[in-house]
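tokens incoming
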């Protein structure tokens, strides 16, 4: 009597199931990587058109990034997969941000109680001879545009945090930001000799000052600083990993030379290009903020390696020497601007005081997010000259408080701060991919410091790049062994 093993048929079914699972996994990976590269291409686009400072760029970005996020969500549903990071893992900052979005929308409503409507609508109605539909916002169109930019930024963060839960993609994102920053820095340097592209009508910012495709050199300096932090992390990681623990200085020097010949040359060249463009921008705030960001990066790398029993002092010292050498050789324009203009600006101090006065008049309701350009003329006095239009307060925090009110303005700032603090924790505690949250925390510190004296964060090229890095940092702040799915 013939005897057949029952598992034989089962083995065939198992093999078929394994093959189907492999094909399904391959399709998932294909979709993930396609979405990722489209995302990176979008980040490469945002600085191109005046740093995404204008209606055309805002409209394209509002279609591109939320649309890409929607396609990603559809792909998850069709494939029956979970989000790599569930919303419950970022519940507190997400709730704060959602409340800010709802409040911004509420500021544009015309059916709110009359006690909430800004008095300027009644005065405008009397001047025109007929009543106007009022709202909390003094300019509903500007507030709607600001809301659109908030949603665009949220879609960038959501894509980054989901796509970059995968460690190699997170590292690739920071490398991509560094490469993109290097390209725009190189273009900015080339502009000094060749002139701007014909379709970029950017006025000259002064002899020898680099602004690349941005409308002003201060915003470019912040963008270049973020790129420098990203490429600096790659350099630190390379030379730290190549360093031989316990070896003499001769062997360590030999390992540095070998690493430079293999991979370090390209990284050092890219870092030099970005740093040179940053110096030639002549931005006082940008240079100081970038120095702060690089300092935070060095501290986080040192703390992490000491926590893990590793040595990164040599790599940090080597990077510091390169930065100091470049600054000494090419920092003449930056230091010359410091000597000519000083560190402080009396006009900006006057603007800050006038903005604070406007905040005191509407501390809870605000004037409508993004309406500074319409509100400030109501408070402008003789402390400022009669020339020029102040479209920004040159302090993003004051503009946020003026537009949203102190309560909701604090919520918006706290949202970013909580994510940055989570990246700090991840940079110190994580064993693998700790460099990604370190870059995110350093870039957030850089941009946050510059926002005290300028409006670079109100440029979408800067804001969206920062948010993408922050999303990757948050995604890598927790161990890969933890299940964070929905």
């Amino acid at each position: 009597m013939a005897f057949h093993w029952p598992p034989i048929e089962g083995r065939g079914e198992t093999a078929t199931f394994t093959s189907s699972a492999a094909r399904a996994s391959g399709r998932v990976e294909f979709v993930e990587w396609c979405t990722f590269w489209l995302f990176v291409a979008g980040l490469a686009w945002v600085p191109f058109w005046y740093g995404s400072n204008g209606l055309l760029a805002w409209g394209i970005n509002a279609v591109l990034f939320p649309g890409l996020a929607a396609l990603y969500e559809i792909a998850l549903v069709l494939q029956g997969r979970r989000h790599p990071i569930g919303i419950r893992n970022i519940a507190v900052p997400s709730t704060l941000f959602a409340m800010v979005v709802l409040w911004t929308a509420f500021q544009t409503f015309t059916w709110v109680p009359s006690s909430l409507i800004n008095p300027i609508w009644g005065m405008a109605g009397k001047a025109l001879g007929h009543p106007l539909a009022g709202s909390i916002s003094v300019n509903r169109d500007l507030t709607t545009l600001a809301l659109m930019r908030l949603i665009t930024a949220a879609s960038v963060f959501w894509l980054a945090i989901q796509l970059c839960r995968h460690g190699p993609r997170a590292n690739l994102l920071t490398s991509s930001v560094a490469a993109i920053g290097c390209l725009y820095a190189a273009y900015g340097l080339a502009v000094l000799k060749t002139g701007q592209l014909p379709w970029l009508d950017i006025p000259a910012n002064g002899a020898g000052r680099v602004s690349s495709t941005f409308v002003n050199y201060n915003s470019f300096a912040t963008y270049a600083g973020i790129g420098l932090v990203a490429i600096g992390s790659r350099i630190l990681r390379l030379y730290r990993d190549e360093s031989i623990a316990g070896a003499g200085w001769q062997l360590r020097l030999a390992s540095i030379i070998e690493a430079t010949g293999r991979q370090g040359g390209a990284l050092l060249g890219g870092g030099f290009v970005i740093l040179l463009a940053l110096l030639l921008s002549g931005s006082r705030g940008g240079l100081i903020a970038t120095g702060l960001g690089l300092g935070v990066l060095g501290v986080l790398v040192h703390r992490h390696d000491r926590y893990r029993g590793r040595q990164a002092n040599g790599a940090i010292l080597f990077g510091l020497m390169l930065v100091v050498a470049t600054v000494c050789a090419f920092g003449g324009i930056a230091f010359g601007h410091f000597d000519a203009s000083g560190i402080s600006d009396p006009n900006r101090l006057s603007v800050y005081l006038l903005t604070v006065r406007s905040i005191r008049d509407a501390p809870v309701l605000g004037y409508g997010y993004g309406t500074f350009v319409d509100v400030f003329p109501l408070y402008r006095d003789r402390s400022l000259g009669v020339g020029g239009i102040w479209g920004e307060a040159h302090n993003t925090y004051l503009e946020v408080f003026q537009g949203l009110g102190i309560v909701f303005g604090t919520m918006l700032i706290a949202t970013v701060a909580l994510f940055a603090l989570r990246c700090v924790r991840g940079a110190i505690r994580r064993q693998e991919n700790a460099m990604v949250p370190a870059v995110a925390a350093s870039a957030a510190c850089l941009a946050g410091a510059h926002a005290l004296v300028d409006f670079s964060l109100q440029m979408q090229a800067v804001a969206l790049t920062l948010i993408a890095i922050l999303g990757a940092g948050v995604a890598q702040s927790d161990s890969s062994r933890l299940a964070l799915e929905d």
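note: Residues 1-10 have pLDDT under 50 and may be disordered.
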